[in-house]
Amino acid sequence: MSKRRFHDLEQRWIAVVSRGGSFTLAQGEEGDELYHYDQWKRGKNRELPEASVPDREGSKPAIIDPFDIKLPGTAKILSSFSGRTQTFVTAATATSIFNHLTLATGAVALTPKGYAAPRAIVSHLFQTQQSKTPSRITKRKYRPRVDDSYSIPFGKEGTKSLAEIQDEIKTYYTTSTNAGKYRISFTPEKTGVKIEVGT
Questions:
Q1: Which residue range is the domain that position 21 belongs to?
Q2: pLDDT value at 158 more than 90
Q3: Are 43 and 31 in contact (CB under 8 A)?
């Protein structure tokens, strides 16, 4: 519901309540809308529609090499993303462009305090169309907007810079068969506390 529409509904509700009025069903579309809005104001119908809350399918590990901190020996960074996002990446056979690694035998994966891996935010330009769902506030039917965005941690590869890796990811999702399907943005690497490496 838009902010303006919500504001107008709130003002209509206040006008009725302030004069001691009540709300009943079968009063026409606008009257019924106020009835359901009154119920929502009293704490009912608060549960979000199922389609508006995508199932993240748990948290999955992502092992990467960082760009801007040094790690001891063969250590790597342990980041994470949702199972839903992992499925999206795997289905597109795109794991390699994010430089997700397999931890070698005997190696450790660290989660330094304050560190956050850089992430690519891959968003569908065209949202998946959903069946109409009754609004939990007014009961009017609408098509819920499903979050078709994916937040994917990525790591360093060899001597490539952060900008070069970002360009590779952007190219993958904006050319060839993916052209016109996605919008790409990035969040920066946060290094937090530096790790002391012994000499």
A1: 3-41
A2: yes
A3: no
Q: When comparing pLDDT for 179 and 77, which is higher?
A: 77
Verify that 105 and 129 share a domain, yes or no: yes
Please tell me whether residues 69 and 136 are part of one structural domain.
Answer: yes
How far apart (Å, rounded) are the C-alpha atoms in residues 117 and 49? Answer: 32
Q: Do residues 70 and 112 both lie within one domain? A: yes
Let me know the angle formed at the C-alpha of 16 by 11 and 20, rounded to the nearest 5 degrees.
140
Q: Averaging pLDDT over each range in 1-15, 36-50, 78-92, which range is the top one?
A: 78-92
Domain membership of residue 141 (yes or no) is yes
Same domain, 164 and 120: yes
pLDDT at res. 27: 54
Give yes or no for a contact between 36 and 139, defined as CB atoms under 8 angstroms apart. Answer: yes
Reference 78, options 60, 96, 97; nearest CA is 60
For residue 48, the tally of other CB atoms under 10 A from its CB is 9
**More confident call, 95 vs 119:** 119
